[in-house]
Amino acid sequence: SWSTGNIIEEQIELIRAQVGDGKALCGLSGGVDSAVAAALVQRAIGDRLTCVLVDHGLMRQDEVEQVEKDYVAATGVKLHVARESDRFLSALAGVSDPEAKRKAIGREFIRAFEAAEEHVLRAEAADGKPVQFLVQGTLYPDVVESGGGEGAANIKSHHNVGGLPEDLQFELVEPLRQLFKDEVRAVGRELGLPENIVGRQPFPGPGLGIRIIGEVTEERLDILRRADAIAREELTRAGLDDDVWQMPVVLLADVRSVGVQGDGRTYGHPIVLRPVSSEDAMTADWSRLPSELLAKISNRITNEVEEINRVVLDVTSKPPGTIEWE
Ligand code: XMP
Questions:
Q1: Of the candidates 156, 184, 54, which has an alpha carbon nearest to the alpha carbon of residue 114?
Q2: What is the spatial distance between Cα 247 and Cα 8, in angstroms, rounded to a whole number?
Q3: Which residues does the record give as ATP binding sites (predicted)?
Q4: Does any ligand 1 atom lie closer than 6 A to the CB of residue 281?
Q5: Which of 42, 57, 233, 314 has the most CB atoms lying inside 10 A of its own CB?
Q6: What is the pLDDT of residues 210-230, one digit of tens each?
Q7: How far apart are CA 249 and CA 305, in angstroms?
Q8: What is the distance in A from the centroid of ligand 1 to the CA of 284?
Q9: Domain ranges in the chain?
Q10: pLDDT tens-digit map of 113-167
Q11: Do 211-313 and 4-198 have the same topology in CATH?
Q12: How far is CA 180 from CA 33, 54, 232, 278, in A?
């Protein structure tokens, strides 16, 4: 039968056959997929794998520190953190089209990996040899929805599928390419990754960059980051993390509406809550969260994040809506 153990053994053999005695680097995004892909490759080639966490400035609050701490503690993997927010913010300046954002982010990821490879990994390697392989946590649904599957339309260019430059210097290793999320989680558990990593809700590689509708700026990221942290904190406090697949929080940065606070008029931005339930992210339904929880999130966000004066709930299933707004 096609058990988790089989998947692991088969993939480890395929990875060894592909990489030989070469070296690989794996980008960690803070999400489940890259964490599991890295753990598989580490199992296959040991410390010839180095993980690179590209801090693109599009992460959620405390996320970089969490990966630095939890993942390294759990796996003992070699990790290099590349501080690259300037690179990403410049590439995103003036860009508001969703596909253009995704492609720009995908391209800068590769540039950031190349820079880390050349200036850090190769520079520090005893043999001075380059890293030839790049591990990505691409899943089957990513391939299908990026137009990689047979007869499939390109719905979105997932950053790690549709945005790769022509002159890529790495050969890709994608051990999860045939798997769905629940299988990936099972593989991660079997490999001994802790629940706070495997059970984590999905978060897209392009990060908060595709949760700001409009141009991405540092100021807007800061607003979204604060609102998102409140929404996640309250969901966790209500004990509902396992009941939702994920809950994107989306900033409608180019929209303003009139509000009132105290005796004053406000003219602020709306925030969208997008809680969904799903099996594999190919289809989804909006989650019926308790109204007291929604009220709590709304009150806290409008009280604590000055720039936000309205919180709205997305009640669209997928299809026709996708989970992320971009
Ligand atoms: P959509 O918005 O297409 O999202 O319904 C389906 C699932 O994929 C996640 N997602 C991404 N994950 N890179 C990723 O690693 C991406 O570019 C990307 N875009 C969307 C999304 O959060 C949801 O879980």
A1: 54
A2: 30
A3: 29-35
A4: yes
A5: 42
A6: 999 999 999 999 999 999 999
A7: 13
A8: 12
A9: 4-198, 211-313
A10: 999 999 999 989 989 999 999 999 999 988 888 776 555 567 887 766 666 778 8
A11: no
A12: 10, 25, 24, 12
Supply the CATH classification number for the domain 211-313: 3.30.300.10
CATH topology of domain 4-198: Rossmann fold (3.40.50)
In DSSP notation, 221-242 reads: HHHHHHHHHHHHHHHHHTT-GG
Determine whether the shortest distance from the Cβ of 204 to ligand 1 is under 6 A: yes
Is there an atom of ligand 1 within 6 Å of 324 CB?
yes
Phi, psi at 51, each rounded to 5°:
-90, 140
Who contacts 195 (Cβ-Cβ below 8 Å, separation ≥6)? 189
Dig out the tokens for 28 from the structure.
């960690």
Query: How many residues can be counted in the chain?
Result: 326
34 is in an annotated binding site: yes
Check if the beta carbon of residue 243 is closer than 8 Å to that of residue 287: yes
- Give CA–CA dist 109/117, Å, rounded: 12
Distance between CA atoms of residues 104 and 98, nearest Å: 10
Atom of ligand 1 minimally distant from the CA of 322: 5
